Fold Pyruvate, phosphate dikinase.
Amino acid sequence: PKRIFTFRRGAADRTADASEALGLKGANLALLASLDVPVPPGFTLATSVWREVQSGGDGLPQELRADLRMAIEWLEGVTGRGFDGDTRPLLLAVRTSARAQMPGLAESVLDVGLNDRTVDILAAELDDPAFAYRSYRRFIESYAHLVLAVDPAEFEDIADAEAAEAGWTEEPGDRAGWRALIARYQTYLDAEIGAVVPQTPLEQLSAVIEAAYATWRSPLATSHRLIQGIPENAGLAITAHAMIFNEHDHNSGTGRAVSRDLTTGESRLSGEFGLVAPRAREIGEKPPVLDLGTLSAGDAERFPADMAELTEHVRRIEAHVGDVVEVDFMVGDGELFLMQSRVARRTAGEAIRIAVQFVDEGLIDEAEAILRIDPNSLDELLHPTFERTSDLVVLGRGMPASPGAATGEIVFTSERAQELANEERPVILVRNETYPEDIHGMHVAEGVLTIRGGTTSHAAVVARGIGRPCVTGAGALRINAGTATLHAAGKVLREGDTITIDGTSGEVIEGAVPLLRPALTGDFATLMDYADRARRMRVRANTETPIEARSARAFGAEGIGLCRTEHMFFEGDRVRSMREMILASDETGRRAALEKLLPIQRSDFTELFEIMAGLPVTIRLLDPPLHEFLPQSDGEIAETASMLGVDESVVRQRIAALQEFNPMLGHRGCRLAISYPEIVETQARAIFEAAIDAGEKAGEAVVPEIMVPLVSLRKELDFVKGRIDKVAALVMDERGCEITYSVGTMIELPRAIVRADTIAEIADFFSFGTNDLTQTVYGISRDDAGNFLSTYVRQGIIERDPFQTIDVEGVGELIALAVEKARRTRPDISLGVCGEQGGDPASIAFFEQTGLDYVSCSPFRVPIARLAAAQATI
Ligand code: PEP
Ligand code: MG
């Protein structure tokens, strides 16, 4: 097989699997050469050579040496220079070229080919002995470092000693001084290492290649491959090309050009060019870095090569790649060389700008633009951010648990959060960790900070769900509950002091920082238009509050896929009526308490229907176990007892009676509805009356969707639907009008999957509750999973947390089964998903494949889901 691949402007040895055979740099140089842009001529040793060397004995095989000699001869011919020649010495830059960026590999060795003789020939050629010797010195240092494992600091000491003896400061002043320094280097190597830098260029090259190969096995490179999943035997390519004298004083330098202005998308070079220092001094540029954007085509005074030519080359590469490119280039004595190109890195905002611009220019189509944006990257655009100024006081850091920045007064309890929020004061809820009873505190807070917990802790999951910025596990901070103080970075903060948290970076910052609100217009909106045209699945939001419902619509939600009614009872006075209902001793008592909740529910639903203006709204009946609403602390228990005029012991008894070992598998969902049908009846009444009210106001009928949670038996649904239908008939009779509505169920238990065909007989729609479904299929508690699933991921037992990304093989297979069964019974059944995974791009791809009709996710994830749903169809 071919070992060595040559390249020069206009011609490169081709290979089909370029980046695997030649590595990134080698493949890229070959590409640039074939695009007829100026590159330094050279050759690449393919990765197969690395494998050959590994399997062989010591040193480089004879055949390879022979090939190397041939490649050198070719290069001598192309450059008109000679390796160890008597005039115009050929010098090489030798670089490792792996198929992916990889730390731990050998750094470039420059000026291979210099020796005691060629250094003087080069000095004569360039009429610059200092430059030639400077290069030689650098070559010896990097050769010794790579091949002989000499610490570069040793050479600093030697140079210091020589400088002191010979009386120079920065570098020797004449040839004799340079020779003395070089001799001293070699003497040291000989004495300490028992080896010197060889004088024969070919030997230098062989030794550098061999040593560079060895760095493939460096611990850093090895662990990087492990993490990135790059095979151990992928192997290393090595590229050698003719040196460019880009550091020679006159008309030389190094630069980086980007084919566009990334912020405007305008097609004009940006980037910079660094002049060699003496040249910069000469033309009075300080600092000697030129902004390419300020250079005009004819600015030969400042830019030593031809700007128009550079622009033309970069354009050609951009056109070939079909994306904005960044190009490294060098100028050596006025001659331009392109060294490397890559797709330019950009922020999410820039990526969108560029994608839209490319569509406008007809360079790519909408589908391609959709595919170019990582849906998850939109997250950074959808949340408030702030500018990183140098005067920010960082109090500590934790996990970036839910993105976005938030500013507010510190509060340590959810009650206090509620009180301040009632006064419209923004708060940050600071807790060691959060519990279900903190949900109302989290709802009213601008952001949440916890001292303990990771990115799947209760705080993190809830915060993401309701779109609150959240930092978890800020372990260096300490809460003193007794004094209600927060101790951080040697400071003591009190309740009411202002802090800012950044849930995107995990930072906790003292004081208020001006926040930048996301803009969903312009290019962002255009990209969303592309996505909306391309996608098949609808995207709804999980929300129950008016504020979030409005933001969901602003984010493009096409309805509400899950309104968790229990969340509507945690706030303010409502929880009192709820407690009254739960603590009631009989049905009459419960009905009385429910009477108080009815108008509250009705007005909540009316508002949601109005905001959603004709879009579908799925309202789920009460789901969690009742004990979640009951007071926990002694103080709260006493308060509840006195409010209800009952003895404290009554409250305690009821709490004890409702206690469950496995609340998640306990008395919740439709089980609650079956035990206490009056709850369903009240909720159904509230929904129907709200639908009529909102419909009358809008002049257009509202069609509510009522969803029954946690069904496993068809008969459960029969029972609950029976109650709903009965109430519907009653309300229609009372109000003298027709109501169209649908009743469906969540599919979130394995039994419901298996019986999906019979359940579908009476369900108008299914919404897969992938949170509970994952919990019950795995038998893993969704509230405790964070403690051990991260270990599973680390150990490679599972690839991803199944509570974040759908487990296609297990849970996914079951969903597909239920879809098939349901459609067999009822071909027109509406099918959606409303678990956390509904907003996860990888899961969305699966839901598209499975043929679901819609996904529903938290409002902030709606644009992400719209884009991901579009990608899934392309
Ligand atoms: C689910 O289980 O996936 C779901 C959406 O319901 P909840 O998270 O409220 O249990
Ligand atoms: Mg559920």
